Structure prediction request, 134 residues.
Amino acid sequence: MPKLDKLNGQQLYAAISVGIKNLVAHQKILDEINVFPVPDGDTGTNLAFTLIPILTEHKNHVFERVDETMEIIANTALESARGNSGTIIAQFYYGLKKSFEGIDILEIKNFADGLQQGYESAIASLANPEGGPL
Prediction:
């Protein structure tokens, strides 16, 4: 497979879609290891309910521009967020969206900046963020 150093909106959507499909495939395992903020066994389920609409509602409505595609992804996650884990991932995508504003083609530096802003957005959405066990 060729090495990519830039992504357009369709390629970004495809990459995120692969991640969502992998998460859904391991949903039950995520439910089993769920310990934060309470061990209620629903992290995988809530993540799946939050992210599946990105696959089902938008696979044929993806743009070439990264910022337009990320806006659809983030808005869908925010609208379908369920539980703490769903809210956290939706806020992560919101941070990516904010970072990618005005970007038509995503380069490595843009992606790294987006990951940082996504992380900061997710952390800011928590009242008392705590790291999990290592």
The longest helix spans residues 9-25.
